């Protein structure tokens, strides 16, 4: 273990954030560069050598957290990154973007603030890139088998890297103009700078993975033609069908899905636009949806110079602390969370539902009408007399996703079966009803977290490798039916 008295001698200390007035004027990550490394050894020492590390169960990747905490405490960065990469292809992504269910399951968290696992993770991998310890892992020999991976989000990239390292010839198809999926165009730059994606892509290129951008399977290339070209196909196309809000006025100009709004802001940072085609500048912005995507819209609106930002959530405000019976340790609790975007301003309104939008004579949205709601007999019901309207010149809908894209023809062309929730059905090896076609990530699981996506990609890669060669030494951290530990 690290320091036997570490959790007694040191309190929880997080990465320092840049001042709000500074960071809202740029798109760089919100944390002070280099602020973690001086404190991370002490933070890693708080790991308790608890005997049964429940953090392993909290993380679907099965990260070897106590081991790399010990190496980080001793500042053995080479060993730490080796342990980190043993279970996670992209720790610089998860260390920045994951909500850290491992910390919710930390044994220390029973009666103290848990270990800063996420901060230790990102410190190890950033140090590894700095020292050159992250190198391409080129396979010693090729299998002669070819695999197409459709989609370049975390699930697709993880599957592609694992299969390439197993010796297969892998091509990743992405319908967008750049590799990365939602990591590229759904996650704002201030949460993760895209240079982290770029250098992983270069590592994967050096290992032999090939990338094909601007090709949408089902439209630009028929799924049946793709299947003829490759020995196996992995579908990692995500759950990109956004949940809509069918209320009067939805058709007004200025009401957009979050994934219509956020990618344009990222394209400005990529140099595609001087200014985003959809901008919050000078506007009263309303974000409908209280999750992470909604918070991304809030932070983006701040940086674009919104006149005001209001975030609406239909559910009641979560509690500040874990409830001992309804959300017991080590389950992942639903708590009130203040993200960096919320620190920057704006108003958060809970237990409200949008009734309709109101526009001007030119068809531009100007007002959002809402009502308070409450649970009656287990159903959310409007509270009489609570109707009101708020200014809204830009509205973003961030209410989650309902399944994989059915409009491009991919599902029908492959002849894929769906499960009862509208996800692509698969067996224990992640194979669909079509032999040689596998599915990983949100397309098979439904909307989920980045750690689940990477775990699915790694597990699906094992299924593909077994199908192609008869056996596999690739790890499979989860089964398709595994779910997060929740009450």
Describe the structure.
- With 487 residues, this protein is of the alpha/beta class.
- It folds into 3 domains: 5-131, Alpha-helical ferredoxin (Fumarate Reductase Iron-sulfur Protein, Chain B, domain 2, Orthogonal Bundle); 146-240 and 402-469, FAD/NAD(P)-binding domain (3-Layer(bba) Sandwich), CATH 3.50.50.60; 244-399, FAD/NAD(P)-binding domain (3-Layer(bba) Sandwich), CATH 3.50.50.
- The chain has 19 helices and 16 strands.
- It has a 5-stranded parallel β-sheet with strand order 3-2-1-4-16, sandwiched between helices.
- Helix 6 packs across helix 9 (117-131) and helix 14 packs across helix 15 (292-303).
- It is globular, with a radius of gyration of 23 Å.
- The two termini are 31 Å apart.
- The mean pLDDT is 96.
């Amino acid at each position: 273990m690290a320091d036997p008295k570490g959790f007694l001698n040191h309190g929880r200390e997080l990465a320092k954030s840049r001042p709000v007035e500074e960071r809202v004027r740029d798109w760089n990550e919100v944390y002070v560069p280099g602020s973690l490394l001086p404190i991370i050894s002490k933070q890693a020492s708080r790991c308790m050598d608890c005997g049964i590390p429940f953090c392993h169960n909290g993380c679907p990747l099965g990260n070897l957290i106590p081991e790399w905490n010990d190496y980080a405490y001793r500042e053995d960065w080479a060993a730490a990154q080796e342990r980190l990469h043993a279970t996670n292809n992209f720790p610089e992504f998860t260390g920045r973007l994951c909500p850290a269910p491992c910390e919710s399951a930390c044994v220390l968290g029973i009666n103290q603030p848990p270990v800063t696992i996420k901060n230790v993770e990102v410190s190890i991998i950033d140090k590894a890139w700095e020292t050159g310890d992250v190198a391409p892992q080129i396979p010693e020999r090729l299998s002669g088998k070819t695999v197409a991976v459709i989609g370049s989000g975390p699930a697709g990239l993880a599957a592609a890297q694992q299969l390439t390292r197993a010796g297969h010839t892998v091509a990743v198809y992405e319908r967008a103009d750049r590799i990365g999926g939602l990591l590229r165009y759904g996650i704002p730059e201030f949460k993760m700078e895209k240079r982290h994606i770029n250098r992983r892509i270069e590592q994967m290129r050096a290992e032999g993975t090939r990338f094909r951008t601007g090709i949408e399977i089902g439209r630009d290339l028929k799924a049946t033609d793709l299947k003829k070209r490759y020995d196996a196909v992995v579908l990692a196309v995500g759950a990109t069908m956004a949940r809509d809000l069918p209320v009067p006025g939805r058709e007004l100009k200025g009401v957009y899905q979050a994934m219509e709004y956020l990618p344009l802001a990222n394209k400005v940072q990529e140099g595609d636009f001087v200014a985003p085609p959809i901008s919050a500048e000078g506007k009263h912005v309303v974000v409908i949806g209280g999750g992470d995507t909604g918070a991304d819209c809030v932070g983006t609106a701040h940086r674009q110079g919104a006149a005001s930002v209001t975030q609406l959530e239909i559910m009641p405000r979560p509690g500040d602390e874990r409830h001992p019976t309804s959300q017991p340790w080590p389950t992942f609790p639903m708590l009130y969370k203040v993200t960096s975007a919320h620190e920057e301003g704006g108003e958060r309104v809970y237990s409200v539902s949008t009734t309709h939008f109101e526009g001007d004579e030119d068809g531009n949205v100007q007002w959002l009408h809402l009502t308070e709601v409450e649970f009656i007999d287990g159903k959310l019901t409007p509270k009489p007399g609570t109707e009101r309207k708020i200014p809204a010149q830009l509205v973003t809908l961030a209410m989650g996703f309902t399944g994989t894209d059915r409009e491009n023809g991919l599902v029908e062309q492959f002849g894929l079966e769906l499960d009862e929730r509208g996800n692509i059905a698969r067996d224990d090896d992640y194979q669909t009803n079509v032999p040689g076609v596998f599915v990983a990530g949100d397309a098979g699981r439904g909307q989920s977290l980045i750690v689940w996506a990477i775990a699915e990609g790694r597990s699906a890669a094992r299924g593909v490798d077994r199908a192609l060669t008869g056996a596999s030494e690739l790890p499979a951290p989860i089964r398709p039916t595994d779910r997060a530990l929740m009450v």
